[in-house]
Amino acid sequence: MHCPFCRNPDSRVVDSRTSDDGLSIKRRRQCPECGRRFSTVETSSLTVVKRSGATEPFSRDKVAAGVRKACQGRPVSDDDLALLSQRVEESIRGAGSAEIDANEIGLAILGPLRELDEVAYLRFASVYQDFGSLEDFEAAITALRADREDAARTDLVDGSSVSALSAD
C-alpha cells in the first residue's frame, strides 16, 4: 500500500477492524518513511457474469428489486427483502468464487424466497425457470405441497406437534 502523503511503497498495519456486516476490513496504517497515518478499507469484490458475457458488480439492491416484483401484493416487507438479499449474498460468497453466473444468483434466490412466501416463490420461479404451461405450475405446486407434508411429518416425529394432536 502506497502512502498517500509521500508515495512510499511500504506501510505498516497498526490496527484492523471488521465492519459490522463483515464484508469489509478497515485498516489503520502508518508510513515508516514520513510517519503519518492513514486508513484503508478493503472489500472483496463479487462479479456477476450475465448471459451476454457482460460483467457487473454484485448488488443486494438489484436482488431485492427483482424479488420485490414477485412479492407485489404479498405480506413481505422491505426488511424481509433486505434479509433475503443478505442471505443470497452470503450463500454466493460462501461458494468462494469471485465471479458468479447470473443464473446461479437466481438459484440462490429460490430457496430463501420459498421460505419467505410461497406465492412470491411461484411467481419468481415461473419467470426464472421459464414456465411454459400449466403443467409447470402444477409440478411446482405439487413439490411445495410435498415439502410442506414432509415438514409436518418431521414435526410429528420430533414430537413438537404431538400436544396439538392430543388436544383434538
Automatic annotation (TrEMBL):
Protein's UniProt keywords contain Phosphoprotein: no
Cofactor dependence: Zn(2+)
Zinc finger residue ranges, unnamed: 3-34
Annotated keywords: ATP-binding, DNA-binding, Metal-binding, Nucleotide-binding, Repressor, Transcription, Transcription regulation, Zinc, Zinc-finger
Bias kind Basic and acidic residues: ranges: 9-22
Cofactor note: Binds 1 zinc ion.
PROSITE patterns reported in the protein's UniProt record: ATP_CONE (PS51161)
InterPro entries: ATP-cone_dom (IPR005144), NrdR-like_N (IPR055173), RNR_NrdR-like (IPR003796)
Domain of life of the source: Bacteria
Domain annotation ATP-cone: ranges: 46-136
Keyword Metal-binding: yes
Region (Disordered): 1-22
Protein purpose: Negatively regulates transcription of bacterial ribonucleotide reductase nrd genes and operons by binding to NrdR-boxes.
Stated family: Belongs to the NrdR family.
PANTHER family found in the cross-reference section: TRANSCRIPTIONAL REPRESSOR NRDR
This protein's name: Transcriptional repressor NrdR
Organism: Flavimobilis rhizosphaerae
